[in-house]
Amino acid sequence: MRPAELHSAATKRYKVQRTTKAGNMPAWRTGRRPVFLKHAATFAAVIDRRYSRKMIVRARIVVTMDGAPIPNGAVRVSGDRIADVGKFSDVASANDEVVDLGERVLLPGLINVHCHLDYTCLRGKIPRQTSFTNWIRSINAEKEKLTAEDYVASINAGFAEAQRFGTTTMANLTAFPELIAEIETPIRTWWFAELIDAREPERANEIVESAIESLQANKNWGLAPHAPFTASGSLFQRCQEVALRKNLLLTTHLAESREEMEMFRDRSGWLYQLLKEIGRDMTDCGHETPLQLFLRELHFSQRDPSTSFGMTGRWIIAHLNELTESDFDSLAEIQQKFSIVHCPRSHAYFGHAAFQFKRLQRLGFNICLGTDSLASNDDLSLFAEMRAFQKKFPAVEPEKILEMVTVGPAQALNREHEFGKVRQNFLADIIAIPFRESPAVYETILNFVGKVPWIMLQGKITDTP
Questions:
Q1: What are phi and psi of 68, to 5 degrees?
Q2: Looking at per-residue confidence, does 176 or 308 come out higher?
Q3: Are 284 and 220 within 8 A, CB to CB?
Q4: Which of 223-227, 232-236, 335-339, 401-405 has the lowest mean pLDDT?
Q5: What average pLDDT does this structure show over 26-37?
Q6: Which of 12, 223, 380, 415 gives 239 a disulfide partner, CB atoms 3.0 to 4.6 angstroms apart?
Q7: Do residues 342 and 368 touch, judged by C-beta distance below 8 A?
C-alpha cells in the first residue's frame, strides 16, 4: 500500500481531530480563557502520527483522577509516558504536534482486575440457575464441549471486547496457562493461572510448577488457587511460598456464595454434596467460615503481621459476599489489607447476599470493580459495572466509583505509581469518550454506553476493535 493509500485508510478508521501544529490552532484553543466549540469536526489522525514518540493530546476536559478535572486540558506524551498534564495553553508550545480530540473527555484507561476470558464464548449459554452449585454443573457441562482452539478464540474475542469498552489493563484468570503462548495480548495483562486440585491434593506442588513453566515467559503473571472448596490448603500454601520467593501477586475466589458458607461452616448444602461426590477430602468442613479457613491455612495472624510473612497485601480477593460478624472482627484485625474485587452484574446474576461495601470500606480495604466472566454476565464493560454499582449504592460519589476501575485496581496490582491516573511520568494509557453537558463530568463518564472511540496504550493510539 502506498503512503497516500495508508493515509486514506487511516482517515476512514479514525475519528479524532486532525494532527496540527499548536501555533496554527485558533486563539480560542490557545488563549488563557478556554472557549469551546459547540460542534467539533471529526476526522482521522495521519497514520504516521499515531505512532509518534512525542505529541500533545487536547480535549474539552481532562479527568486525571489526580486532582480536579481540567477544562481545555492537554496531555504531553513522550514515548510511552506522560510528560506533562494541564491546561492546553500551559502545556503546548507553538511547534508541538497536537492531536485535538475536540468535544471529548480524556481519562485514564480502565482496569479490570477480575475476569475469565476463557469463557467469553459462553455468553448467554447458561440461564440463571436455582443454585450456585447448579451453575457449576452447567458450566462444567459446557466446558466439556470446548477444544483448545475454542479457548484461544474465546480469549482473543474477550480481549477485543474489553478493549472496545476502554479497558487498557486486565487481570485475567485462565485455566489453561499453556495456551497463553498462542495469544497476542492487545492490552496490558496480568495472567493468573487458575489452579484446582480438589480430587488430587497430593499433586499440589506438581500443579504449581507446571503453571509456572507456562507463565514465566510473560512479563506480568501470578497464581490463582481457585477457591477453598476446589483448591487444597497445600495448594494455597505452595502458591503463597512461590509468590513470596518470586514477588508475585495472588488471587482467589472467597466467600462467594451461601452454599460455600454452608459447606465450610455447617458441613451441609448442595456444594458440600457435590464436592463430596467427586471425592474431595471434606475434613476441613463443619468448623469455620470460608474466610477463617483462608486466614488459618495461610498462617495469617491478624494481631501479629510478622507471622503472616507480609503476604496479605499480595492477595486480590474476588467476591467476599458471605461474611459473619466474627469474619468482620477478623478483617478488622488484619494489618496489611488485601484488595477486594466486587463484580456487580455477576453478583446480581447469582442473587448473592448483599455486598457489604460500606463496612468493608470503613475497615480500609481497597475495593475494585470487575466483570467476572461472560458465563455470568452480558459483556465486559466496566462502564456498565460502574452503573450497576451506582444503582445499588447511590450515595457513593461518581468520582469514587470511577476510582474503583482506575486508581484502586492500579493499587491492587502494585502499580499505583505507574498507571490509573493521568499524571506526569505515568504510563500513557488514556481513553476519550464524548463530552455531554452535565452538572458533573463524572456522571457523564458513568453514563457512557457503547464503544470507546479513542484509546492510547503506552503512548500509541491504538485501533479500537
A1: -70, 150
A2: 176
A3: no
A4: 335-339
A5: 38
A6: 223
A7: yes
Residue 340: is it exposed, middle or buried by C-beta count within 10 angstroms (0-12/13-18/19+)?
Answer: buried
320 backbone φψ class: left, alpha, beta (φ>0; ψ -120 to 50)? left
Query: What is the distance between the alpha carbons of residues 352 and 217, in angstroms, rounded to a whole number?
Result: 37
- Is the pLDDT score of 316 beyond 50? yes
Looking at residue 453, what is its pLDDT?
A: 96
* DSSP conformation class of 276: H
Residue spans of the domains in the chain: they are: 3-109+422-461, 110-412
Q: How many CA atoms lie within 13 A of 211 on its CB side?
A: 27
- Name the burial class of residue 163, with classes exposed (0-12), middle (13-18) and buried (19+) by CB atoms within 10 angstroms of its CB: buried
Instruction: Report the length, in residues, of the chain.
Output: 465
Q: Are 425 and 431 in contact (CB under 8 A)?
A: no
The architecture of the domain spanning 3-109+422-461 is Roll (2.30)
64 versus 47: the higher-pLDDT residue is: 64
CB contact set of 263 (below 8 Å; sequence gap of 6+) = 229, 269, 271, 272, 275, 285
The dihedrals phi and psi of 217, each to the nearest 5 degrees, come to -75, -15
- Phi, psi torsion values for 59, nearest 5 degrees: -150, 165
* Under 8 Å between Cβ of 462 and 186: yes
Other beta carbons within 10 angstroms of residue 388's beta carbon come to 20
State the average pLDDT over residues 269-285.
96
Residue 116 burial (CB < 10 Å; 0-12/13-18/19+)? Answer: buried
CB 171 within 8 A of CB 200: no
Q: Give the model's pLDDT for residue 19.
A: 54
What Rg value do the Cα atoms of the chain yield, rounded?
Answer: 23
User: What residue ranges in 16-101 does DSSP mark as E strands?
Assistant: 19-21, 54-62, 70-78, 81-87, 97-100
Domain 110-412 belongs to what topology?
TIM Barrel (3.20.20)
DSSP H or E segment with residue 253: strand 249-254
Cα-flanking dihedrals φ and ψ of residue 66, to 5°? -140, 30
* Pairwise CA distance, residues 250 & 245, whole Å: 13
Q: What span, in angstroms and rounded, lies between the C-alpha atoms of 293 and 10?
A: 56
